[in-house]
Each structure stands twice: as C-alpha cells, then as structure tokens.
Amino acid sequence: MTANHRPLNSSRPAARRHLFALLCLLLVPAGLACSTTPVLSASAAADQVSDALEAEVGRAPEEVTCPDDLDAEVGNEMRCTLVDSGESYGVTVRITSVEGDTAEFDIEVDEEPS
User: Fold this and answer.
1) Could you tell me the CA-to-CA distances from 46 to 1, 4, 13, 35, 68 in Å, in that order?
2) Which of 6, 20, 50, 76 has the CA that lies 20 to 30 A from 95?
3) Are 83 and 66 in contact (CB under 8 A)?
4) Is 42 exposed, middle or buried (0-12, 13-18, 19+ CB in 10 A)?
C-alpha cells in the first residue's frame, strides 16, 4: 500500500502560509513569583504547530522545534523550525489573543525551505 504524502508547504494557497490555532493551554507564570505574565512553553508551541499542520494537510511534519518559551502577550512571536521530507522550514508563531489559560495564535510556514 502506498501512502499519498503531500508536502506540508504545498497545501491550499490560503492555508499554506497561514494557519490559525486556538490553543487551550495551561500557561504557566514566568520567572519569579512576582511575575504574572503567562508563558507558552517551547514544547507546547511545537506540539500545537505539529497538530495544526496535521489537521490542515492530513499529516504531521517529521519534527517541529521551537527555541524558547514565549511570553503569552498579544503581538509576541517566535520562530520555530519544522522538518518535512528531510527539508527544514521556518515557522512564525504569533500570539493574537490571550484570555485566561487560552491563547490564540497565527502559524505561518515559510514558502521555501531554509
């Protein structure tokens, strides 16, 4: 049986560049006890990018890594990397809203491998 694999960067044109993910995450307080800024962990961000891509194109990338935790504040963003079919692509994760322990963010996959 042969599996039909679409490259993750070649889905429908509108979805290829932008995916929206509503994430119900347990955002943890950052740093010291006096800080109240919730944080999206690097591992949670990588998992959510992988899940969103799998939902959009029918399969998950081979690997997604994000370098650091991200303060969950509207407008904050970080660059992650995904590996698909042996090629690496940059991914921008940008927080668009935060309410309680729920963060919504935009996921943008680069058009070309890096």
Assistant:
1) 30, 24, 23, 24, 10
2) 6
3) no
4) middle
The end-to-end CA distance of the chain, in Å, is 32
Which neighbouring-strand residues pair with 81? 65, 90
pTM score of the predicted model: 0.72
Distance CA 88, CA 38 (A): 29
Span 54-105, pLDDT tens digits: 998 899 999 999 999 999 999 999 999 999 999 999 999 999 998 887 888 8
pLDDT digits (tens, 9 = 90+) for 22-37: 444 445 444 444 457 7
How much is the pLDDT for 11? 43
Q: In what order do the strands lie in the sheet with 28-29?
A: 28-29, 38-40, 70-71
Domain locations in the chain?
A: 16-109
